[in-house]
Amino acid sequence: MIFLKFDRRIFSHFDWVLLVFVLAVCAMGILNIYSTGFSAAGGQTSFYLKQLQWVVLGFILMMAVFFLDYHVIVQYAYAIYGFILMLLVLVLVIGSSSHGAQRWLGAGAFAVQPSEFMKAVIIITLARYFDNHKSNESYSLKELLVPFMMVMTPFLLILKQPDLGTALMLIVIFVSIIAFMGVNRKSLIFVVVSGLILAPGGWFLLKDYQRERLITFLNPERDPLGSGYHIIQSKIAIGSGEIFGKGFLSGSQTQLKFLPEQQTDFVFSVFAEEWGFIGSMFLIAVFMVIILWGLKIALQAKDSLGTIIAFGVTAFISWEVFINIGMVLGILPVVGIPLPFFSYGGSAMLTLMAAVGLLMNVSARRFILQK
User: pTM surpassing 0.85?
Assistant: First the structure.
């Protein structure tokens, strides 16, 4: 039985530092989401209450993942991968649609986004593969073919929804892990050159609105009331926050609803307008502590499996922070990547909390000898 693997000794090595900083970001995120739904004329949206519910559910999931030995979890990695893959297929068949994208299973409060779950699942799947196929030297292209196919299968299914941002995150996680594991020089040169040659062809695989996003990224002023509206309003909001911000519930771009997608993609813009440069740097500093703590856990893990898992989770969180903030600042194209623990979204919150549970799992069990 899987539950027989529980070891009570892990309580004495619980990672309180990681938990406190993660919950701090969640708390700031809930306050920020409250602000996005606030109206001086009266009334309030329920997004912040729903986010609180997702945080609580995420915490329960995080603790469940923490309690189970990560070695046992990884034993079931391929089965979990297959199950989420099946859900991705079901999304394309019977999934619900919103804003032209078919990404959800279920409806209303019970809708889930399986593509988000795949971000964490691909980490444990790759961890199992590389732990079972250790190499004394750098990996060759032939050795990377199987894990590449493991990533490309959900990548193509998610791209079909379409969800370019989540699909690209799978590639980013994969590249981060194989770079960490080591790729020989010839293979690396081949991949880079091939990517440069094939990249222009990728333009024709994009949807019209995705091409428009890339063009807008290069010149948002070309269509200020259309495709460039989001990023222009985001820059105005961030800039108007100046050093100390306009104050909680006092952001004009936010409260007057000029800023689109306030509780999801552009939550950082809301926060920057209300809390300014100082507040923004504080939030980024908290994220940096989480990221550096994750790298510390990876370095101190007692085995290669724990190291791969901890590094994969840390890379996942790091890239989402970097891409989301880069998006709202206009230095990266808008691809729909949420800000971890901060943006509104149930599936994303559950995935991130489960990932943190894995980090805590690796952290605590480095003190416990394997039987």
Answer: yes
